[in-house]
Each structure stands twice: as C-alpha cells, then as structure tokens.
Amino acid sequence: MLLPYLETCDEAGTDEAGRGCLAGPVTAAAVILPEGFNDPILTDSKQLSEKKREALRPVIEAGAVTFGVCHVLPEEIDQINILNASFLAMHRSLDQLKNRPKMILVDGNRFTPYPNIDHQCIIKGDGKYLHIAAASVLAKTYRDSYMEKIHLEYPMYNWKKNKGYPTQEHREAIREFGLSPYHRKSFRQLPEQLKMEL
Questions:
Q1: Residue 175 has pLDDT above 60, yes or no
Q2: What is residue 146's three-state secondary structure?
Q3: Which of 105, 102, 76 is CA-nearest to residue 89?
Q4: 31 CB-near residues (< 8 Å, 6+ apart)
Q5: What is the DSSP letter of 64?
Q6: Is the pLDDT of residue 7 over 70?
Q7: Side-chain half-sphere of 179: how many Cα atoms within 13 Å?
Q8: What pLDDT does 190 receive?
C-alpha cells in the first residue's frame, strides 16, 4: 500500500513521462494530495492499464489540493538535452501549484534544486508514495493524450499506439518516411546510429 510521505499535505510529488521516447514532449506533473487521500488502485502508472490510468486521472484532479502538468517540446529537448528537459518540465509543473509546498518528493535519483524548497529524490518513488504515483499517472495520461492528437497529423508513425517510444514499427516508419517535426533530432533514431567506432 502506498503512503503519503510523512502523512502531510505540505509536500508535492513530481514525476515525468516520455523521457525515453523518440518523438513528442517529455511531460511532468506535480501533485499535492490532502491528508487522508487514498485510492485502492493508485500506484506507479507503469503498473496500471491504460483504462485504469484514464479512470484515475479525474479522481486525482478532483481530489488533489493542487496539481500542475507541463510539456517540454522536442525543440527545447534538443537544445538542453533530455535530462535537463525532464527537470525543467518538473519545475514548470511545480510553478503551477496554487499552494507552495515545504518539500518536493521527486521520482528518481537526480533533480535540479527548485528555488527555496527542499527536495528529496526517491528511487522508484512512484511505487512508494501516493503523491508521486498521482504525478506519474497525470504525466503519463496527459502525454498519451498529446501523442494521440499529433497522431492525427502523422498517422504513419502510429503514435496512437506506440506513444513515440522506440518500437520496431516506429523505427521502420522513420526509415520509410524520415523524421517529423515532432521527432527529437538530438536522439539516435535508428539502431545503426548506435554503432560506435572503436
């Protein structure tokens, strides 16, 4: 069972989705939950079916004290690299919170400090704490929705299904059609680009 960190609503949980994708934004969410908030199916978004994630999204939005979601688009990812873009998305989602937390709990092992608020990195935190799990669900569902919309512009990549991740189908479409404006140009898009000369 996931527990709110220190059982207080003075903390925000934050997480991102889409870091390993070839196309589309990296998306982050930040969530402050009220004391006593609980949901029997809320856990790390990667452990949930798409149907359960979509069902949880309005529950989290309605139940949260406050939440924020931010996309950082491929152009900015290419300029500052994906790690910095992930931190930037988290910072921008935290900027949207109506209540200022006293502590930020971050899923993962690295984070750029947010101005004037302490943080703690929690490895696999989305499977340990409710507010990080809630952030993971919002980040994933908002990003999936974004990818489904741009799928309509470029259906040949089948982003509605693969959400921009490096599936074989996605890579084969890149070989056939080249890169779209939504692809991350700084990423190695095809396996042959991974070969290193020693």
A1: yes
A2: helix
A3: 76
A4: 12, 13, 14, 60, 64, 66, 67, 131, 134, 135, 138
A5: -
A6: no
A7: 14
A8: 74
Measure the CA–CA gap between 92 and 101, rounded to whole angstroms.
14
Query: Is 15 labelled as part of a ligand binding site?
Result: yes
For the chain, what is the mean pLDDT?
91
59 has a pLDDT exceeding 60 = yes
| Nearest-10 Cα torsion for 34, 38, 44, 50 | -110
d(CA 55, CA 77): 30
Nearest to 32 by CA among 15, 45, 13: 13
Annotated binding-site residue? 118: no
Per-residue pLDDT, averaged over 43-53, amounts to 90
Residue 16 is labelled as binding a ligand = yes
Strand order in the sheet with 103-107: 66-72, 26-32, 11-17, 103-107, 118-122
Contact between 137 and 48 under an 8 Å Cβ cutoff? The reply is: yes
Taking phi over 0 as left and psi of -120 to 50 as alpha, with beta for the rest, 183 belongs to beta
Segment 14-43 mean pLDDT: 94
Q: Name all domains of the chain by residue range, CATH numbers in brackets.
A: 5-145 (3.30.420.10)
